[in-house]
Every structure is written in C-alpha cells, then in structure tokens.
Amino acid sequence: MFRKTTNKLSDWMTSLSSSRACKILAPLAPIAFALLLSACSSGHPRDTLNPAGDGAEVSAWFFWLYMIIDSVIFVVVLGALAVAIMKFSKKKDDDGSLPPQSHGNMKLEIIWTVIPTLIVLVLGVITIGGVFKLAEKPAEEQKIIDIEVTGKQWWWEFDYTKERITTANEMHVEAGTQVALHLTSADVIHAFWVPRISGKRDATPGRSYPLYFKPFEAGEFVGQCAELCGASHARMGIKMIVHPAEGPDSYDAWVKNQQTVALAPKTDLQKAGKKVFETKGCAACHTIKGVKELATRSRSTGPDLTHVGARTTIAALALKNNEENLAKWVKNPQAVKEAALMTNLNLSDTDSKAVAAYLFSLK
Ligand code: CUA
Known about the structure:
alpha+beta, Immunoglobulin-like, 3-stranded mixed sheet
C-alpha cells in the first residue's frame, strides 16, 4: 500500500517536473518567495530596511545594492537557462542522432570569467569602504553622548559617565546627536542590536568595542541581544528612546531628572515598600540614589533603581512597567524570566505589593 502510494507520488512528480509549464515557471519561484518575504517585513519594529539611524541606513543601502545586482544576475542566468531548456529540449520529430558536438569557446570563457571578477571586485571595494565608514571615530568638536554599555545575564546596564547616570535596558539618546557606545560584558558574550538604528556589535568580557551612530528622528526603537547567551537570551531586550532636541520631552530634561536622587515615598504603602527594600535584601544588589548606594558594581549586582518607575518596561522588556507586574517580578523573578539571576527573596504578597508600589513611585 505504502509503496503503491509513493510510486504514484513519484510518477506524478516526474510528469509535473517534465512538463513545459513547470520548467518555465520553476525559476520564478524564488522571486515569488522573495516578494512574499519583503511583504512580511513592512511596518515591523525591528525592520532593518526602514532605517532611523545612520548605521542602519548604511546597512540598508548595501542590502539594496546587493539585492539589485544579484537580481539582475539571477534573471540573466535563469533566463538563459529557460531559453536553453525551451530551445534544446527533445523535439517530437527527433530522430535520435547526436547534435553537432563542440568543445570550448575562448570568447565566452573570457567573458564569463572577467565579468563576475569585476562585479566581485567593485562590490568588495565599496563594501570595505562602508565598513570603514561605520567604524570611523566621530569628530570631537560636536556634542557626543557617550554611554558605557555592559551586557549582563540577562539585561543591559547603561552608564552615562559624563552625566553620572546609570540606568538599565532603556537607552535614552537625542535625535540628530552623535552617540558613542563602548560595549563590554560582565559575564558571557552578548551582542547589542537595535536594527532600525545601527548594525549589531558584540559585548565581550574584558574588552571594550565602540559602536557609533546618529539617530535621525525622535521615537522608540526596540532591539535585542543578538548573541545566544544562555537561558533567557530571548528575553534580553533593548529599548532605545530617542528624544527630540528641545521641548519638555527633550533629552536634556531626561538627563536632569535622572541626575536627581530618588523621590521620597508618599503613601503608607510606599513607605512600607521602602522599608522592605532596605531590610529584606533588595538593597544588597540594587542602588537607589539617596537611599542606598553600592560602593562597587559587581557581576551579581542588579540594575540601578533610582528612577525605575520612569521606565516603560521591566526585566529587560519582559514585562510592561506597572505595580502589578513589579509585584509579580519581585515575588518570583524566575517565573517571569527563566533562570533570572535575581534572588527570589520569598517575599510575602503584602511585601511584594508594598515594594512594587514604592519602586513604581520612583519616577
Ligand atoms: Cu545576551 Cu543573548
């Protein structure tokens, strides 16, 4: 029974593949597939082909350059193949004799060696130029936002050294202003990647790699750790918030707010939460400026929480930031994020809710 079915299937496939229509249409299948893929990508928040920064723009430009040249080569080669198939297929009146036999054609050999060599050479030179352009150190005499980026299992620490600000997972920059990241890691290799803003770059322990870019427009852009770095690699998100240069929502206003010490708790619940933070173990790993500052930052240290309430997400974008989610996170981090290194302090429901209320008030 099985053999009968497979035989039938293979007969059908043979007849299909030898049909004239299939021979002509087969080369078009990859084009249809590429069109389908490009249709899927429109409007996606991580769309590299919709650049919002100069680094991503260079990458997108190279993508289209290669796409166009490769498409022309594809059409020419497969077109020639289709013509050959149609013109030289076995005819109905074929008498079985061999066609004239020939060997080699010097002119053709030279043409199809020289043309591909030239194409590869030109593309190679242009591509190397692009690589150097992306690695170019920005001119010193402009405003540069310098950020030390440390990848940790499984979140990102952002240190604005000049501004003396430390935050996590949500990077704030300014539209039209040069940004210089200095990437490192506290444990394994991670990779920083916000596809609409720039290309990706590894964050490696013991080294510092630069990544330069300039965002074009204000907005929020999501990214992702792009190096398999352990159990919660998929939950090591990045959000880049690009502020306008002026106005109440400007980058400078954000910096000013971040430089202040933490707000004092107002409600009883928030006051109780502050006490939980100070006495139940949270303060061993987290800094809240004005409340408890850690002298040194180590591998085990968690994010600076001075203004955690002002973040839009928590746990490296795993959850939306609100009191309910904060309580869920502190109560059992590993239930939200597999193998999360934050200690489960076995807080009671009451303590979790109180500390969540306090943390969310830290705008
Ligand atoms: Cu860090 Cu993947």
